[in-house]
């Protein structure tokens, strides 16, 4: 509703601007045209007078002055009638043309205003979703803490061990809040990367470091990680690419079945560095693939907290990082072939 009003306001000012411009130029055109026409008629009239004087042959009892006077009067009347007719027709034509132009301006102005405000509308909708989802995610641990502390306060028979358990649970929820706030900060940071600070970096070394860091996590599920990496240097923000690979590997480990294999490849394809990570686990439904990179989006499977302790911001951070490096990220998934996340960034 707000944007609709804004579109009407923008269109209104478009029309006002065009109407004022038309009024000025139409007025100038109108008076210039009349002035030029009047001068042209005067020149034509003088030529007629000169020709009349040269060829006039007054009849008996009439002098040349009387004939010129009658002819002059007739010409003046014709001139005035011609100018009035020109004035009237020119005014009608200019007004009609201005009305048509204003109507066309109003139509295209509304269309252009809609196009111009479309990104703003999308941003506002995303902001609303963000506020709603963030409020929900913040409310859940706060509600849990409040309930546990209220129960503990009412129960006068709590033992030291039970009080310690309540405190431990509260600290766990606080840690979840801290992790969520950290995710918010990371999202904001990676959405505002400055390309001027990018440096030539070895992608294969980043991947090797991330895999080494996550070795214990993968080993806890008896998952092996196989790598096929080409030596590739690319101009990028090292910290953000490290975060990107970490997010994708962390997701691959979380959702992979136990006793399976994760495959990572890094290669040059045309003028791009292409990273792929493949695992076997719960596949992503086709209906969810287009939404998987949206902030706070979690599939029904990932809402099981025994599987995932995240908030659905990791992949949105990954997408923001890739976008800021002018690259692409996408996913393919099926029950038979497993899931593959791919990103490519220009060399």
Describe the model.
The chain crosses the membrane at residues 12-37, 90-113. The protein has 347 residues and is of the alpha+beta class. It folds into three domains: 2-56 and 65-125, no CATH class; 129-190, Orthogonal Bundle (Helix Hairpins), CATH 1.10.287; 196-346, 2-Layer Sandwich (Heat Shock Protein 90). 65% of the residues lie in helices and 14% in strands. The chain is built from eight helices and seven strands; from the N terminus they run αααβααββαββααββ. It has helices at residues 2-55, 64-154, 160-190, 203-213, 215-220, 238-255, 286-289, 314-324; strands at residues 199-202, 224-229, 233-236, 261-269, 272-279, 328-334, 338-346. Strands 2-4-5-7-6 form a five-stranded mixed β-sheet. The protein has a two-stranded antiparallel ribbon with strand order 1-3. α1 packs antiparallel against α2 (64-154) and α4 crosses α6 (238-255). The longest helix is centred in the N-terminal third of the chain and has 91 residues, at 64-154.
Distance between the termini: 44 Å
Number of separate helices: 8
Q: Describe the main β-sheet briefly.
A: 5 strands, mixed
CATH superfamily placement of the largest domain: Histidine kinase-like ATPase, C-terminal domain
DSSP strand content: 5-15%
Number of DSSP strand runs: 7
CATH A-level architecture of the largest domain: 2-Layer Sandwich
| Secondary structure category | alpha+beta
Helix share bin: 55-70%
Tell me the number of structural domains. 3
Rounded Rg: 40 Å
Low-confidence spans: pLDDT under 50, at least 5 residues? Answer: 303-308
- The coarse silhouette is elongated
With strands numbered from the N-terminus, the spatial order across the biggest sheet is 2-4-5-7-6
**What is the C-level CATH assignment of the largest domain?**
Alpha Beta
Q: Could you state the order of secondary-structure elements as H and E?
A: HHHEHHEEHEEHHEE
């Amino acid at each position: 509703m707000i944007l609709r009003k804004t579109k009407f306001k923008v269109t209104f000012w478009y029309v006002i601007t065009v109407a004022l411009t038309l009024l000025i130029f139409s007025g100038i055109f109108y008076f210039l045209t009349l002035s030029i026409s009047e001068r042209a008629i005067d020149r034509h009239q003088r030529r007629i007078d000169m020709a009349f004087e040269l060829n006039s042959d007054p009849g008996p009892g009439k002098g040349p002055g009387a004939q010129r006077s009658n002819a002059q009067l007739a010409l003046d009347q014709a001139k005035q009638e011609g100018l009035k007719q020109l004035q009237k027709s020119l005014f009608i034509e200019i007004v009609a043309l201005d009305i048509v132009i204003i109507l066309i301006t109003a139509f295209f102005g509304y269309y252009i205003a809609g196009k111009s405000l479309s990104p703003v509308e999308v941003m506002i909708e995303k902001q609303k979703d963000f506020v709603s989802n963030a409020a929900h995610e913040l409310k859940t641990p706060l509600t849990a803490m409040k309930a546990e502390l209220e129960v503990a306060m009412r129960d006068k028979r709590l033992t030291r061990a039970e009080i310690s358990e309540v405190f431990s649970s509260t600290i766990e929820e606080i840690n979840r809040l801290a992790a969520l706030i950290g995710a918010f900060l990371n999202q904001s940071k990676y959405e505002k990367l400055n390309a001027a600070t990018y440096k030539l970096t070895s992608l294969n070394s980043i991947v090797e470091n991330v895999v080494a860091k996550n070795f214990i996590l993968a080993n806890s599920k008896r998952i092996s990680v196989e790598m096929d990496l080409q030596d590739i240097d690319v101009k990028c923000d090292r910290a953000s690419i490290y975060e990107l690979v970490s997010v994708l590997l962390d997701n691959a480990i979380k959702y992979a079945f136990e006793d399976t294999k994760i495959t990572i490849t890094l290669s040059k394809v045309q003028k791009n560095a292409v990273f792929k990570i493949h695992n076997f686990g719960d596949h992503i439904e086709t209906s969810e693939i287009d939404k998987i990179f949206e902030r706070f989006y979690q599939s029904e499977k990932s809402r099981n907290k025994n599987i995932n302790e995240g908030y659905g911001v990791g992949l949105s951070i990954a997408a923001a990082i890739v976008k800021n490096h002018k690259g692409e990220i996408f996913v393919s998934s099926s029950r038979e072939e497993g899931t593959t996340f791919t990103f490519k960034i220009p060399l």
